[in-house]
Amino acid sequence: MSISTRFWGFFGRNSAKPETDARCAGLGILVAFLAPALLFYAGFAIYPVIRTIYNSFHAIKPHGVVEFVGVSNFTTLLFADATFWKAVGNTALFTIVATILDVFGGLLLALCLFARAPFAGLLRVVWFTPVLMSYVVVGVIWVWIYDYDWGLANAILRWLGLGAFEQSWLGHPSTALWSVLGAHVWKWLGFNMIVFLAALYALPGEVLGAAELDNCGWVAKLVYIIVPMLRATIVNLLVLSFIGKMMVFDLIWIMTGGGPLWSTETVSTYVYKRAFEWNTFDLGYPSAIAVLWFVIILAFIAVMTQLLRQRDKLEF
Amino acid sequence: MVAGMRFGFEQIRRLPLALFVLLYTVVTGGPFLWVATMSLRTTSEIFKDPYGYPSPAHWEKFADAWTKSNYHTYFWNSVVVVVIAVALVTVIGAMAAHCLARYRFRGNRLMRFLILSGLVLPPQLLILALFQILLDVNLYNTLTGLVVVYVATHIAMTVYILEGFFMQIPQDLFDAARMDGYSDFEIFWRVTMPVGAPAIFTTVTLNFIILWNEFLFAVVLLTDDDKRTLPLGIMHFMGSHQLDVGMVATGLMIAILPVILIYGFFSETMIKGMTAGAVR
Fold first, then answer.
1. Would you tell me which residues 110-149 of chain B have a C-beta closer than 8 angstroms to some C-beta of chain A?
2. Which CATH class is domain A83-315?
3. How far apart are CA B187 and CA B182, in angstroms?
4. Same domain, B87 and B110
5. Which residues in A lie closer than 8 A to residue B124 (C-beta atoms)?
6. pLDDT tens by residue, A38-62
7. Nearest CA to A274 among B131, B25, B75?
8. Is residue B262 part of a domain?
9. Taking the complete model, does pTM exceed 0.90, yes or no?
């Protein structure tokens, strides 16, 4: 018996259990294994959440002034804050459109490679590259692409003879959100592609082979065989993508900062602004936004998984 | 006849497929190539013709970008923060995952739920309070504070991936080790860690990429220029060289190149790492 066993055995009831049962361990050993993770997690993840919830019912002013304000942060937010609702609308639009484009675009790309496109092995690696880049890199590149004078987007339009559609893409309220969305989808398509490709290769070959023998067309094969069999993956990616987009911050912050005219303001950028940019000097109000938004995200996750699970039961 | 029809269909199908594949490759790779050409050209050259070939190639711009800004500081800050945070989160996460996967004890499920609940916590919910907490404990605007926050916020995903893998290690191995008189810690260090190495490697890659690119926590929790990590540094460089597009492109390229280089050698590992949470 080594020193460490004796040491930890001292704390626990290890000696009471048969030494050979590797499934059992004394309390001391369990604590030793779990404590570091729990300490970090409790101190810098759980405690901040509790404190944010506490803050959301208070006005947190500089110099440690804390006033209890009840639910007034929430009522202001819900009934008297037009910017917040603008941000909610933008975030909702962004989330829905980007999630659909990401997941089904990713599926399309995966199918291209699965259909033995030329250089499929290499392209899989190349198409994934943007996923690895930081939002700062992606953001700056796309700010240039959207530049009015020398950006790639306008240059391509001119080259196609569509010069009439030239835009200041990020400078105009009607196009800014869609432009950022394009950059976001560009970054993440490769991720969904890889996940789908892995799922496609894991499909039982016999089923696809049988479909081929039945002279099943490519579209029919996709709609009746591949998509139903990929259901779990699709659901998984939809939920994952949805959660990510509901909290979109980095790319928007880097590309537009929420402007012009709140047209790309999302809930997350608004939280950041209210906390650190506006001179309202109150951490309570942005905390209320963060808490409310988290509750909404949780509710959506619950509803989504529930709905999709029920459909599963019906089908199988 | 059927086979012939299928063959014809196949041929027709392949051309649009190849064209689409080519188009998407240009869409993915084009912007990087564009930045690469711009990084070797001066701003006046770029404004004359934004899409020209870099001739002559101004390689000296890379040396300029590196020396005339705080790039080396940003780079080393990122290296220090990310290496320490990844090392800590890996060891701590592996210990917790080993404990949850191996031992039967009362409260196992509760602990598991508690730690994995971190998977749904958005950074936005933590960041405001973390700002206050780090101020309270004098870790605001320090790299140590950032490391602590990174570890805390990435434990859940690490434990999630590792626990799933550790669960599949056959129990016989552990029973045998116990028979041979291994202590609990020796079992973790000499059995779980080596056998679980592929999964550990995966989480290391995942955490490394995510933390290397991390922006939100860093932008809120650091203020001094000499503490900035690379993403913040690039943003700052952008801000101070707003009109010097050529220089910013060089700066961007310094950030892009190492990633591409490492990706070139370890592409499969990185792909596997990044998608580990999503592929089941």
1. 111, 114-115, 118, 120-133, 148-149
2. mainly alpha
3. 6
4. yes
5. 247, 249, 267-268, 271, 290, 293-294
6. 999 999 999 999 999 999 999 988 7
7. B131
8. no
9. no
